[in-house]
């Protein structure tokens, strides 16, 4: 169940919802996470709660008018867990203590008692120490009980607390199982459950920790200190104390500590830690650099643009941590299943323990042990942990390759994709168009420079890549000193005066026609620039338009609405590797590759040909792109839309999975997309797809394996095929280790 969903909150619909993230250091098993969250959802004022066993965080959505954070923590405390509002430090989460902590010591001591007891029994045991109605106590028995007591101490306190809170959990089940076994004189079984289950817990903690630590490798990428320029002095500071506007010095080979803009110097920067691109990127004055990337051989001075908690890397880490909290479809299935599974098996356990002896007079001791065995199998841990470990493992693997997946949900959906739809400009093409030709209309007396000048004036306020290209081309034209020929005398437009006017451009008259062009006022008349459809006629430019489009140029007309004075042809190179990326996607299993564009069909076809696109939909307005996505979805199945995330937001949102490219440094792209490629490398798409398919596979294998294993064991118990020890080793420890081990495979998928 997702944090935003409201299935359980109807009765406690919050007037005002607030989120708090609590750290629960001991919530390291999936069963506990689920129990805590289920419990909290019953508290008045709590709209939703989501336990994340891998990061040991508990996200609670509550109404501050009804319930306080302290009250929430108290409720968690009742179940036997301490909840804190601050984040855990690295050492506390780290592994070393797992094998040496109190739980571990109890486990080892319990194991030692078990070993001695087994030896004592093997050599012939002692005389009876105490006579008991069930089973006389000898030395070995006493040692088994000691093993049970010490190992069992890992479960008793929490078990008793959970009994008091009237909620069935693993600790409670184990407490009953251990005490029950001692009660009927099955001392060996009692010791074995206590020891093996303690060991299983340690192993589960250890393996989940390995998954968690993969997130920490991301955190380790953020440098702690930065060298800040204060006046002419260099001062070492914690990055947390560096603020936007500061100037930071980065020496050759150093990790860049902040997000910022290069002020001085130049260098090849290895951006692999953030974007996953292995080739160094040349950075010169004015270029953006990212925290966590590694400076090459140059000396850089960087003007800080974002605080330490705001950097692309910090957001990336934050989103990866959050991702565990966004439940996948499989997780919701497992949660529902577990909620039903545990009680059913527990009831079966009671029935198995008492039914046959009471009804048929079967041997009580034997059936009681079978009941206990079922109790062990009733623990849903391996099942509940099966999806989160796969999700966290997959998402962190992706993050290390510059692919940010914002939730397990999207990892799963991406694995189901049938169609990949690309936006053209800036996605399949570089997005840096250049003006390659300017053609005056035959019946116009305007010349090249004048047309470019008017165009630039109209585009001065537009953010569109075409607009920027036109403004740039005009600037270069004037800078070159060559072609500054004034236009026709009756219009006020020499290129120079136009450019000057553009700066002071009349803001009121500017109108952006999304997906079409731009409208503005020149010399008292309404002019426009953009798609030929904007104009009443093409001013006799048809043959030029056709010729240029055939060559893959984007053609825009400029002039008064009734008739254009000329055209500009712009050329945008296909991204290098676009064809390769499409081929790889196909090889990985994508059935249909589509290009969606607002540009003309022939222009699009010329780009698409080289890239290997199956279908081109051209001349689309932004809302038509949304409809195209929906239509593709109906026809072929789930669609992934790939865009720049800035001006194709609606289409990204409409697709099953919205993927933004080049998201590093762009907040909008990071926010709008479900998945963000931090770099510009289209080849990452095939990696993403393969990883997602693999991830989806691992999730399914994990769930199936856990259910089949538990189910099989549960059926085998009453038949006497499964001993208690087998149930613990295979059904719990084995299953948990198998699902985590299987999940770690995802880290091995290579781009
Ligand atoms: P794409 O789908 O390739 O990303 P857009 O939807 O952004 O393209 O734009 C579609 C078409 O509209 C462009 O090919 C161009 O003809 C025209 N257009 C959009 N904005 C502008 C602008 N600022 N200046 C000129 N033409 C524009
Ligand atoms: Mg676009």
Oligomer: single chain
Question: What number is the mean pLDDT?
Answer: 82
Structural class: alpha+beta
Strand content: 15-25%
- Overall geometry comes to elongated
**Biggest sheet character:** 7 strands, mixed
Count all strands and give the number: 25
CATH fold-level assignment of the domain at 434-571: Calcium-transporting ATPase, cytoplasmic domain N
**Radius of gyration, taken over Cα atoms and rounded to an integer in Å:** 33 Å
Strand order of the largest sheet: 13-25-24-23-14-21-22
What is the CATH-assigned architecture of the domain at 434-571?
Answer: 3-Layer(aba) Sandwich
Task: State the low-pLDDT regions, or none.
Answer: 1-14, 88-95, 481-507
Report the CATH superfamily of the domain at 434-571.
Calcium-transporting ATPase, cytoplasmic domain N
Bound molecules: adenosine-5'-diphosphate, magnesium ion
CATH top level assignment of the domain at 434-571: Alpha Beta
> Helix tally?
26
Measured between the Cα atoms of the first and last residue, the distance is 32 Å
Query: Helix proportion of residues, in percent?
Result: 40-55%
């Amino acid at each position: 169940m997702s944090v935003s969903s409201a299935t359980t909150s109807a009765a406690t619909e919050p007037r005002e919802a607030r989120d708090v993230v609590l750290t629960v250091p001991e919530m390291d098993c999936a069963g506990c996470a689920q129990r805590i969250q289920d419990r909290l959802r019953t508290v008045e004022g709590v709209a939703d709660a989501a336990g994340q066993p891998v990061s040991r965080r508990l996200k609670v959505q509550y109404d501050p008018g009804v319930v306080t954070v302290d009250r929430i923590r108290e409720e968690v405390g009742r179940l036997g867990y301490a909840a804190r509002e601050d984040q855990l430090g690295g050492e506390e989460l780290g592994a070393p203590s797992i094998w040496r902590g109190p739980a571990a010591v109890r486990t080892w001591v319990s194991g030692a008692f078990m070993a001695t007891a087994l030896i004592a029994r093997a050599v012939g045991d002692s005389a009876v120490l105490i006579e008991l109605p069930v089973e006389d106590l000898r030395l070995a028995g006493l040692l088994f009980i000691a093993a049970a007591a010490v190992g069992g101490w890992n479960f008793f306190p929490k078990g008793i607390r959970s009994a008091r809170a009237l909620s069935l959990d693993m600790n409670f089940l184990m407490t009953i199982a251990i005490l029950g076994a001692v009660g009927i004189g099955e001392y060996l079984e009692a010791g074995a459950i206590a020891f093996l289950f303690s060991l299983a817990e340690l192993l589960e903690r250890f393996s989940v920790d390995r998954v968690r630590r993969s997130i920490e490798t991301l955190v380790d990428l953020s440098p702690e200190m930065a060298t800040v320029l204060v006046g002419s002095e260099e001062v070492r500071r914690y990055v947390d104390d560096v603020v936007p506007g500061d100037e930071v010095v980065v020496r050759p080979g150093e990790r860049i500590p902040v997000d910022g803009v290069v002020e001085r110097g130049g260098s090849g920067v290895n951006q692999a830690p953030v974007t996953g691109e292995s080739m160094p990127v040349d950075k010169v004055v004015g270029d953006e650099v990212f925290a966590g990337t590694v400076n090459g051989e140059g000396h850089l001075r960087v003007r800080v643009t974002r605080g330490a908690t705001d950097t692309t890397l910090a957001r990336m880490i934050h989103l990866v941590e959050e991702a565990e909290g966004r439940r996948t479809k499989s997780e919701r299935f497992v949660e529902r299943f577990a909620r039903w599974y545990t009680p059913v098996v527990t009831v079966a356990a009671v029935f198995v323990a008492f039914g046959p002896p009471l009804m048929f007079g079967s041997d009580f001791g034997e059936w009681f042990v079978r009941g206990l065995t079922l109790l062990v199998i009733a623990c849903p841990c391996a099942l509940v942990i099966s999806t989160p470990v796969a999700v966290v493992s997959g998402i962190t693997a992706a993050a290390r390759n510059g692919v940010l997946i914002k939730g397990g949900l999207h990892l799963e959906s991406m694995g189901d994709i049938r169609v990949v739809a690309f936006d053209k400009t800036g996605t399949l093409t570089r997005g840096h168009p250049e003006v390659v030709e300017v053609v005056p209309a035959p019946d116009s007396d305007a010349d090249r420079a004048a047309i470019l000048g008017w165009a630039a004036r109209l585009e001065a306020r537009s953010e569109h890549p075409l607009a920027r290209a036109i403004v740039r081309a005009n600037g270069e034209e004037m800078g070159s000193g060559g072609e500054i020929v004034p236009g026709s005398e009756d219009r006020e437009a020499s290129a120079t005066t136009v450019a000057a006017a553009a700066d002071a451009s009349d803001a009121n008259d500017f109108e952006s026609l999304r997906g079409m062009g731009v409208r503005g006022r020149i010399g008292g008349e309404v002019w426009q620039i953009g798609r030929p459809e904007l104009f009443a006629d093409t001013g006799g430019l048809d043959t030029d338009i056709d010729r240029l489009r055939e060559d893959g140029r984007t053609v825009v007309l400029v002039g008064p609405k009734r008739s254009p004075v000329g055209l500009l042809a712009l050329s945008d190179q296909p991204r290098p590797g676009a064809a390769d990326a499409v081929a790889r996607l196909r090889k990985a299993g994508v059935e249909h590759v589509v290009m969606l564009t607002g540009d003309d069909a022939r222009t699009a076809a010329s780009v698409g040909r080289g890239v290997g696109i199956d279908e081109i939909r051209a001349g689309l307005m932004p809302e038509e792109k949304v409809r195209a996505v929906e239509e593709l979805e109906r026809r072929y199945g789930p669609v992934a839309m790939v865009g720049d995330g800035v001006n194709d937001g609606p289409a990204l949102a409409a697709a099953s999975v919205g993927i933004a490219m080049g998201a590093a440094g762009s907040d909008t792209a990071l926010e709008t997309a479900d998945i963000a490629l931090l770099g510009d490398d289209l080849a990452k798409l095939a990696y993403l797809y393969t990883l997602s398919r693999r991830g989806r596979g691992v999730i399914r294998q994990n769930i199936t394996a856990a259910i089949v294993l538990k189910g099989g064991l549960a059926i085998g118990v009453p038949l006497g095929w499964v001993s208690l020890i087998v149930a613990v080793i295979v059904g719990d420890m084995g299953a948990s280790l198998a699902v985590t081990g299987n999940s770690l495979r995802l880290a091995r998928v290579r781009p």
